[in-house]
User: What shape does this take?
Amino acid sequence: MKRSSEKFSDAIRRSIKHLEDSGVSITQKAVIDNALFDNGRHVGKSTLYRKDPVTKEHFYKGLLAEIDNAASRQRRFRGRPTKKETVIELKGVIRELKRENQALVDQVVTQEAELIKLKSLKRSDLGVAKAKDDDIYVLAKILLGKTSGSHESLDSIVRRYEIVHKGTERLKESQAAAEKLRQELSGATVSLPGMRK
Assistant: This one.
């Protein structure tokens, strides 16, 4: 009399053969669903996946391999890649995607570094522009104090700067710088080209 494991294996092999002959797609589920014992009873659905309690390996790993091989033969016959070929192809695609991803990450890091550099330069340029703006105000303020009468260009520069920076520390500092420079230049005379006759 056959042991139960032999009866189970025979039922699985008959199911594989039946699926191959009928042209139905071979999958582990299809094989189990169509596997019948000699008495016509369906096999247990979880039996195929039973594991050895000690080794933790599938008890029927040989049958699982037979199912995979039958599915691969069928796929190859139909002109489709086998499971193994599909896995190899997908691994290649994954490797390529990882390379592309790394290239994109490198590009983003490079662009981020460039952006940081540009922001730093922009801040530096803004600082230079502010300093020049302050210097122009200081000089215009001093020249106005050293000339007799009014000078429209100088008045405009001083007025515009004082309106924009009204009530700020920057205006106070610029006015203090202008006063300090005025005191250092006291006694010196200045004439503007527009004032000459």
Remarks:
- The mean pLDDT is 82.
